[in-house]
Structures are given as C-alpha cells and as structure tokens.
Amino acid sequence: MAIITLHKERLQYNFERLDYFFKLKEIQWSVVTKILCGNELFLKEVLSLMPNQVCDSRVSNLKAIKKINPKVETIYIKPTPKRSVASVVKYADISMNTDIETIKLLSHEAQKQNKIHKIIIMIELGELREGVMRDDIISFYDQVFQLKNIEVTGIGTNLSCLYGVLPSTDKLIQLSLYKQLIEAKFNKKIPCVSGGSSVTIPLIFQNKLPAGVNHFRVGETLYQGTDVYKDAPSNLLKQDIFTLKAEIIELIEKPKVPEGDFGTNLEGKSFTFDQKEIGKTSFRAILDLGILDVDQANIFPKDENIKFFGASSDMIIVDLQANDKKYKVGDYLEFTLNYMGALRAMNSSYIEKVVV
Question: Is 65 helix (H, G, I), strand (E, B) or coil?
C-alpha cells in the first residue's frame, strides 16, 4: 500500500513563519486547504494552527471544515456554480464571484437562510481565468450594491494559475485604484483587497507590494516551502511537508528492453528503445501505486539512483539498476512531491493518509 505523510512540525514551522511575517506587514491571510481534498485528519492539523480564515474551491471541503470548527471563517474561492448556491451560502462565509445573475441567486438564498453573505468580486487583470472585465467594473458593482443580504467585502484578482502571468506592482496598483474608485463612486467601504497568493509573497520582500493590497490566499508556499515566483525552494521555510512512500510488490532482475511487436500502451503512448540496451538486465521493482493515484512526473525518488521505467493504472515500475541497497519485496521506496503530486495523491482514496 502507498502512504502519504503530513509532517506536522514542518507544517507548523511554515505556518508560524508566514503568520509572523504577514502580521508584521499588517496583511490578513487565508490558508488555502484545497490540497487536502477534505481529508478530516489533515484538516484537523491545519485548523489546530488557528488560522483566522481558510479557503477552498470545493463546497464539500468547506462542509468538512465547518464540521471540525464552525467558528472559523471560510471562503469559497471560485465562481459559484448555480446549483451549489444553497451550499455555498451555508458553508462559506465569503465567496468570490464574477457573475451578476449568480450573485442575485446568492442574495435570494441568503435571505432564505437569514444570513448576510459576504462576497469578493474578482477582477480580470490579464490571466484570463475568472474576473469581471475592467470596463464593466462600475456597472457591475452598481448592480451588486442593490442586492439584499449581500455585503461586498472586497475586490480581488487571480494571477499565475492558468497561464503563469506573474503579479507585478503595476497590476496590483490597478487593483488598489479600482477599490478607491468604487469607494469614491458609491460612498461604500471595501475593506479587503485580495491581490495576493503564494506567487505574490516575494513582492513583499522586494518592497514592491502596493500598500492597498491587504489580503493573501496562501497554499503552495505553506505546504511546499517554495518561492513560487522563482519556482524554487525558499530558504526561510521547510520543504517536504508531504512525503510519499510506496511498497515494492515485485522485484525481479529482468531485461531492460521488452520483446515482441509494439503497439500502444493504455495511455496511447508508443515507445522506442536504445538498441544498445538489448541483452542488458536490471532489477525492476513494481510499486503498489499507479497512474490512478499520481503522475510520476510530479513525484521524485529520494534515492537518486532510482529511475522510472513506466506506469499503468495501478502500478509504477522503477529501475533499481544493480540494486546496491538490497531492496526487497515489502520494502518501501520514498518520494518527495511537488504541489500537483501532493494534490493528486491526496485525492486518491487508495493512498493511506498519516500524520507524524
């Protein structure tokens, strides 16, 4: 069986460093929990750190969060599906929105539930994911301010996730200026400018973050200890908050090159092999882990001598070469994971979750 482990002390270290840093800069931050895929064991560890806010892109995950701690403030961080309006109002204290008809439904549902539902309106600043077009901002806010049981608590943007458009001082100044424009136009206070995510953190160190940006949504830097702007480990944080290990279920010395007529594998891939490898052998280990659970491009053996041979739906085959470390059936091979590797592994119900 494969196991993904959450290292509690490393997570706590990163949380405390980030929390101290953001408080020093008078910035509110929200912990993104979507990488945990609603796993109750891991969610409890994150919530035990006492974050002021948590945010997620799945209503079911917010439901699990509210079950553990009903008092923690929750944010739904993608445009609300119309069929999920009732659940979003019930489990999200705040939601991020871009569609006026959906916000009208949220208003109606909030009245039914006798709640004030807060929203952050997302603005398009070049990433071309979610966001109201800039020419439409004033008329959009005008309509939203008419709605009952809706409180506009912020303005926000998303960068980097789809096309890798990096945040810049100019883009975030635009966001702050739109906030000021709306406040002046409608005589309304908008307390939150949510322009920050993990990729924006380096701008603070460089003193390039506009003063108006006061809210961050942080996931990858917390869980991976990375400087996302540079796509590199941060020397201020710990890495390997998540580690993965998979059991060897077969280990036999076999030829390096398969024999027979070749078609395509289950992924539709075809292969060619170095003819110089014909006649050579190595120890091949089959792991109790497959494409269904992880993408081998996002996991990295701690033993650098191990190479991937390939994978099928439920098994990954690795090359142990001469097997100098004398691995045997039943042993575990350990892997580090990038963000997508951890997310995919967390989403697999076939991988055991453990806290150490």
Answer: helix
Q: How many CA atoms lie within 13 A of 315 on its CB side?
A: 12
Highest mean pLDDT among 3-17, 161-175, 266-280 belongs to 3-17
We find that the CATH architecture of domain 242-355 is Beta Barrel (2.40)
78 in active site? no
CATH 3.20.20.10 in the chain, residues? 8-233
Report whether 3 contacts 245 (CB < 8 A): yes
- Asked if residue 164 lies in contact with residue 128, where contact means CB atoms within 8 angstroms, the answer is no
Residue ranges of the chain assigned to CATH 2.40.30: 242-355
pLDDT of residue 275: 76
> From the candidates 8, 34, 171, 179, which is the catalytic residue?
34
Q: Which of the 8 DSSP states describes residue 132?
A: B
One-character DSSP codes across 89-124: HHH-SEEEE--HHHHHHHHHHHHHTT-PEEEEEEB-
Q: Which fold has domain 8-233?
A: TIM Barrel (3.20.20)
Please give the share of the chain, as a percent, with pLDDT higher than 70. Answer: 100
